[in-house]
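User: Modeling request: complex.
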Amino acid sequence: EVQLVESGGGLVQPGRSLKLSCVASGFTFSNYGMNWIRQAPGKGLEWVAYISSGSSYIYYAETVKGRFTISRDNAKNTRYLQMTSLRSEDTALYYCARYGGYGGPLDYWGQGVMVTVSS
Amino acid sequence: EIVLTQSPTTMAASPGEKVTITCRASSSVSYMHWYQQKPGASPKPWIYDTSKLASGVPNRFSGSGSGTSYSLTISSMETEDTATYYCQQWSSNSRTFGGGTKLELK
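Assistant: Request completed. Predicted assembly structure:
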């Protein structure tokens, strides 16, 4: 069974940093690209970042470019999102999601981890 | 960046009613994916590659479209279909979601 489990969220002050993790199981992690998507309270989905299976391709939404860094450790089946210079508008539920490949959908999602940026 | 605009943003349908949700892209795209999200739950892939139903999706759902206009249709609304639906596409270096359509039961 495919599982994605996020962790690392919490309450953080504006301007500070936080690192999210997503541990994958039930599939060959190194074969799949992975994404982070976020959802602000009561709002819609916003794609945040993508990393390809071999880390050759990395893309970011304009809203986080230069502040967030996506990475992965295939040996640990884990993908990370390092978030710096956090702003109140970064407050959201952050999901990791697997990219099925070949232009396909995000076929498996984690349960999400909450990040609250507030003083 | 391609912008996806969904309409309507909210709608209510009676049981048995036909429902159509539209997603318009700011530039032509090759395909569209759709997700269903219920309150307190993670999104689920629902329709992919414009018209293919994800595993377990009832066949009263269908997807169609091309170019800049895509749609999700429910042939006969059922209670369990109440949810928010999002369209999504990939372009060269970004992925975008539509703003969502909240579907309620009338």
